[in-house]
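Practice set, problem 2.
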Amino acid sequence: MSATMDLEALSNYFGGGTVMDVEGRSFEVSIYHLEDILSKTGYMHPRMEKFLGKPTGKETPSELLAAYYGGNTIVHPDIDNDLIVSLLELLLRQGDAGAVIVYLPGYSDMTSLLARLESSLPREQITIILLHSQVDNSEQRKVFRTYPGVRLKIILSTNIGQTSITIPDLLYVIDTGLAKMKTYDSTIDASQLTLTWISQADAKQRAGRAGRVCHGNCYRLYDNDRMARMNLYTIPEIMRRTLDEICLLTKLAAPDKKIENFLALALDTPPKDAVMQSCSRLKLLGVLDERDEVTPLGHIVAELPLGVQIGKCLVYSIYLRCLDSMIIIAAYHSVRDPFVLNIERGKKSGQQISRVLFAGDGMSDSLAVIKLYEEFTNLKRKDIGDFCERNFICRNAMEMFVSAASTLRDTVYRIFRFSEASARLASSFNNDTNMIRLALTAGLYPKLAYMDRENKNQLVAEGDPLVQVSRSSCLRGKKKQKDLASEWILFVEKTRTADQISSLEHTTLVSGLMVALAGGKRFITEAHGSEMLLCLDSWIRLKCPAEFGLQLHKVRMLTDREFAKLVATRKLSLMSDFIGPETVRRLLEADVPSTCLAEGKSLLDRDNCDNDF
């Protein structure tokens, strides 16, 4: 059982159930807090000298601690690289040879400390290894090696190194007491990585890494008082993550109960506003109806090992006949990102360059994923290693991605009982990038940003007036954004950065026509003389000639009706009779805003049409 679990709360939740505690073998770990470390190392920060005056060398640990904080009573999370260097210098002089793991919040903290260590410590006595989820597996496996002649194997790690691994020669733990926790803000529908103090349970677990194979030492870069004020346990994920999947599964498990009432019975009750936000999104996606009942689409999505929105993208791709391509995109989002960070300084942008190359002129991170998958699966086995190294890709993660796509394909075929003929039909538009974008729009909406050309190309999203494209996206760059053919950018996730700007992750450029054809739930037309406004939900207005708008509305009603019939019956035999996919394919293929179809046949005069689409 996890060392970070609140056993008492869990036992009480089940009516005082008996807890059987099976202790694993461990050795004693000596714990030193910040005040002890200051005393042992003799470290003297400039502010300490200012606070103490002329140090005598006889200061008590409590006096040193007060001087270190400069008399401040409020201590903000911070990392003192100089103190870590001083402590490692002490271990090199007086300690036994072995491994030391330094727990840090994120990659930038790791590279900052890496540079400091390389310039301060004798290179012949140390080796430095980075342990991070986006560092290649071959690099991570170096933590298990021994290095003859090296006194300290220094491992810089995020909390990925906190559980599940035992490093045979690990003698020392240096714990900054900090981590980046992913939280969710329902008011702007964005996740955020927040620098925060870890819990007491996490601190104990980190210390325990040093006592796996022999007596160890843990150096905590925070004082005893800070330890006492830390939360006992980490905030559960149900309290700080999106609840879309949980709400859907809740309704399937307890169809007669209100979702919020059922979740109120949980060990940790999630915030009510987060529950309401997820329920509203599920209704918008057509996964729940207005009575909070699970729809036929919801039942299908629940059977898929995917998030709700990616799941809807996949189901809609069957209707639009681009299934195989969407399986690849969906599988990518179900596994670890195969792109890895380059730990060599000066080459940190390598993976970003690689992402852009795979994207080409497609203006879509999702289309780049398809290109990556196709190139990898067409390689000869002897060429895989070179391909991965050249493109900053983790081979193991890439193989997991390919395997996930295969498993997902089997799952979809089982749910819909595909025949050979229906499988061919469901992917007959597989290479049509417009149809892929349209399927993404249907599932990811309302994760959509609009570029305001009249306001310096500023991006805005629903409920969030200040957003930007992520650095990892192929659409990144002011010059590139200025020249984009459309004002609409679809995204998979929105992440709030430290400067309170939301960053759009995994983006795809889509047209206003695609938004009108597949976005939103409430499609309302408003006639204004010879023009018409197409209103999607409460925040999107698209202007077009009245006749075009009426015909577009008919196409939208047609595709909505056919898609609903497909998910309600799961009969793929109906697809050969559907005219919607071919209708929208021809409309999108024309790439002329004024071209529109009525019953798949009539065309409007292009000279009379507005260019808002």
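Problem 2, part (b): a different protein.
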Amino acid sequence: MKDNFTIPEETTKKILQKYNLGRFSTLDEIKTGLINPVFVINNQFVLRINTNKDSESKQKFEKEAYLYALLSKSDIPTPKCIAHDSSGEIIKEEYLLISYIEGETLKESFQKANKEARYHLAYQLGEIAKKIHSVDIHEISLRSDLFGSKEDYWNKKLEMEFAKYFDLVKDKRLLVDKIIEDIEKVSKEFASLGDLSRKATFIHGDFYGNNFQVRNGEIVGIFDFEMTKLGDPYFDLQKLPINFQLGDGFDKGAFLDGYGQKVMSTEEKIRLKKYALFQGLWELWATETQQFPFGEKEIEEGKDLIAKALAY
């Protein structure tokens, strides 16, 4: 959960001075996102603060810094990592300083776009998803300390987390019996697919509209790689049944065209359904347990994702 956090102007100036980034002029907070305080400095740099001291949070920052350097060699439009500092020299909190990509979020851009522009955005989104899932995982697999192994997550942790979310939903009777039965059916079908570690690719892990930046109708940036892991690429497509929350004007066919896949096989649909259900159940679980400051809106989003995943 995001902490209330302020950073004084003088501290911001010291950060700029440390990396020879010029004079200070403006500081604005980005209020989207659930976990880390984020600020834009001089409309040029993004400062993300890690206010958590646990090892998992520190690992996520190290992972993201590593990935920005790695992905700078690709044609995936990511920010440049300027600094990853956990020294405590200027502020006691660990921080990540990256370049700012000017534009508006994909969600904002999509809402204002006409039909032709929306098709183009959906197609580009598919192209970027494919580029992410096509990244050579050799270097990434060498950093199992950051990304785990492809066997660990998909064969063990994912099922454990799914069971935790589903058990609470059943105990609290948050869904009707028919929906529960349908989820159990998909889970059995998924289990019958066997070991999916062979499907593992590099995945973003938080593939949704607010993590993309658009300028002049083109997707010019993707960020927030802290949830990245080695896993099934269809995990990134878990919100496809609800159009990545971009609205009814989203063209799934355009997305799949950009992704290079006209149709899905029966197996691929089962995998997509399972991961969409995972996300929907997580939203119900996170709201019920108040792990995040969610409310009725997220309950309805979770239920809608579950219903549309089952119908997909």
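Answer key, part (b): The mean pLDDT is 92. The longest strand covers residues 45-50.
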